[in-house]
Amino acid sequence: MALLNIGILTFTMLFLLSILLISIAKTDSFMQSWRFFTAGCGRTTVTNTMLHLLINIFSSVMLASSNFFMQVLNAPTRSEVDAAHAQGRWVDIGVPSWRNAFILSRFKRLACLSLLLTSVPIHMIFNSSLFKIDKRMGDFHATIATEAFADGGSYFLPGVSMITSELYREGNNNDTGWKRTFEDDFGDTSLLPSFQDLATNNFSKQTANMSEAATQVSNWDKLGLTDCQGLFGQSTCTGLNNYRNLVIVLKGSGWKRSELWNLSASGGEVWQPIVPRDESNNLWFSSQCNMRGTLSQNGYASCSTNCDIFFQWSKPEGDSRTFLKLSAWFPAHHNESNWNETLYSSVKNDFMLGFNSGDFELDHCRAEPRDNMCSIALAKPLLLVVVVSILVKISTCIVVMLVLGNEEPLVTLGDAVASFISIEPRPKFVSGLMTHNIVQDRERDGTIYEPLGPRKWFRRQHHRSPTVSTGAWVKAYCLFIPGFIVLLFIVVGQFNIDIS
């Protein structure tokens, strides 16, 4: 039986070692993960589950083989039983026992410790050596434009909204509400081109993003407004499961700057090289956005996006049309000190809002289909730890066989009965019926070596309940009840999560 268990451990180690060597040959670096399977995310999930099931089977077989040797090491020999009885102590036979660990030899204790420690990587690391790679990230590019944008119509960055990082100016009468909206709901404002970037054509990344969207948007999936807001909006934001970038399409054929902005002569002159006054511009605004999941203080999961301004739509009562609300896109009219006077100066003396606001009617959305390809990879350092652990485990088992090969441990109760029948106890120890209670009583009186004489038999009624001691029941329920409570909280929390 011992040779069989060593053979199982050796076969498993050689199998895992061959996989490790193949993975090293397939990659340039030992630290680099080896992607050995790539397919659709649904198929990858199933394959990943099956591979982890196979890992658990291998782990169970290895731990069972290791447990065989630990049971043998934890079982006392006849000489150890006699020595314990001579001291008025008893040992456990047939079950793993901490009591035995303090009675057995130092070699057995060290061997048991070695087998125990080498089982930890198999428990905790082996499963982690295989993992799924999902390339679906939380960032996406959102654009608001007209239908002509997808048909090759002209556009000028940053769009006819002319929103740059210099739009808002710090002042004594700050519109703090709009400033917070600008920082939280306009996407990653740190990536917005500044006016200086626009004036010097230093915005190649933004140009590349817009050029890609303009040339490919006609091939993207068309979404209704309800579906679009449901997928990418603040409440659910599940759009990134199947889609990447987004274009919100407005009705109309584009705008001229002169139709929307009431700039002064100096302001118009500053913007003329960037957003021409009388040329059609089919781009309203574009920004890099991010979706993120959060966990509230009460334990509920939610999802949010930093581009909420894109989805602030209104639908007048009794009207089937949907409009993009522009009231939150710019600082309040009365806080003229918030406007950058150099870039957005108005012809009016009181520097009122230079933009002629009016809501834009929405038509539909275009979403870029995501390449739902996922991979399964192998972490070579973790697998190496598992292989080394199995090798140490095999070495320990071989040493145990060589050192304790002639000993006959009492692993089961049958072994103990056979030993006590074949080898009688020493006469000075017992000479009659010996029970555990007699050993304890005599140990207290100091007369443990006194021969046993005839005694009267008392018939007592025994119940099944005392078979397991009260202490064992208490320990079991101390572990069971907290675990059940934690499991209950987890189950309730899962039912309360409204996120996909």
Automatic annotation (TrEMBL):
The keyword Transmembrane helix applies. Keywords: Membrane, Transmembrane, Transmembrane helix. The chain crosses the membrane at residues 6-25, 53-73, 382-404, 474-497. Residues 4-150 form the DUF6536 domain. It comes from the Eukaryota. This is DUF6536 domain-containing protein. It comes from Colletotrichum chrysophilum.
